[in-house]
Amino acid sequence: MIARFPDDFLWGVATSAYQIEGFPLADGAGPSIWHRFAHTPGRVAGNDTGDLACDHYHRYREDVALMAELGLNLYRFSLAWGRVLPEGWGAVNRLGLDFYARLVDALLEQGIRPMATLYHWDLPVALHERGGWLNPDSPHWFADYAETLFRALDDRVPFWITLNEPWVIAVPGYLDGQLAPGHRDLFEPPRVAHHLLLAHAEAVAAYRALGHHEIGVAVNLEPQYPASSAPSDLEAARRRDSFVNRWFLDAILFGRYPEELADIFGPAWPEFPDESLARIRCPGDFIGVNYYSRGLVRAAPGSPPLNAIRVTPPDAELTAMGWEVYPQGLTETLVWLKDRYANPPLYITENGAAYDDPPPRAGLVEDPRRIAYLREHILAAATALEQGVDLRGYCVWSLLDNFEWAEGYSKRFGLYRVDRTDLRRWPKASAGFYRDVIRSRGAIVFRASAPPTAGCAADAVPRDATTAHVSRAD
């Protein structure tokens, strides 16, 4: 095992605009689909909204000071499309753009490199009413928006991410209806996904003409394990692997979709022209990896479109989201990316855990389970580095307890607790732990001896079962 991470390894945190900024309509901003979704009764737990969130819009300097105290050298954040272009296109809202310019300047003053995500799920309502991501013009809208930001900020922003988790946009947003815009239509996700991929490609092309640094995409990944060695479960895990992990990456890096998708969607899967498939092959400079857990998959005939369901292993260690703690899945995911896609540069752009933290005592929130989660996953990242993965940085999700989408404020991921009455930021013990990780370049995680969590047990699945990643001959 390595003794510490490389000197040039980047340590950061990640956030997104609608989840922390608050005041989404301030200073001439246009509403997003998440503003509309959250204001629809019954869509979000507790009918919470992002109207106030963490008020990062006004308290960003306070939050940048917290980042400096942690010793971060990277901050991944997103820009709200509607703050910059209230109608989604056309006239720029100078006040909205100036907010992001001030944020970038504040980061640079503290030696923190900005990593700006162009789209983290908050499409302007004005564009949604024109069809949103179902409209074939949506890639052009996105490229115009991206160009606006490249021209304004690329002299100070060294890392750009086009899209955050396009799978989540397409599936929970347009198939399951769990997230904005809340559609439930089998025929929509393939079209939405294709337009998102074209949007990524057009934004990368625009950056090649205008930019001077690095641009990539952030995808949510999880290794898929069969729940048993039964052939039906093995096949179910392979289907879900194509659906979750390879749908977008095969398109971006190979210019093709996994063959399984046509069977999964059946008549809802379109015939995509060869020309458009060639256009979506647009790797960028790096891949951002958002990792939280694995998928344990059981065949479930009659559960379309996958005819497969996720299950939870008995006695698994779970986060407050109900997600299994499975750190070795991060190593497997990173090594799989190396092997399948010729070792692209990688950043872990999200990794973290929600727990039911206690109230602060003596000014501190004790969160030992989050510390254990972070330690185990940082060790998993180190193992991937040892195996030759070109891993360049790690971001904790998240800096602050925030608006956790459909969960509202009921789930807490932050290194800092945000009091919902006065928005005061309370440090958690995990913030101090992460500060020490950064100061030691990760050395403390190798020195610390912590017992493995139940979720790390090697026999949580049958011993002869293998992950879909490993078992597939591809």
Automatic annotation (TrEMBL):
GO biological process: cellulose catabolic process
Enzymatic class: hydrolase
A GO MF label: beta-glucosidase activity
Protein's UniProt keywords contain Protein transport: no
Protein EC: 3.2.1.21
GO CC, one annotated term: cytosol
Superkingdom of the source species: Bacteria
Database matches in PANTHER family: GLYCOSYL HYDROLASE (PTHR10353), LP05116P (PTHR10353:SF36)
Similarity remark: Belongs to the glycosyl hydrolase 1 family.
Matches recorded under NCBIfam families: BGL
Protein's name according to its UniProt entry: Beta-glucosidase
Source organism of this protein record: Thermochromatium tepidum ATCC 43061
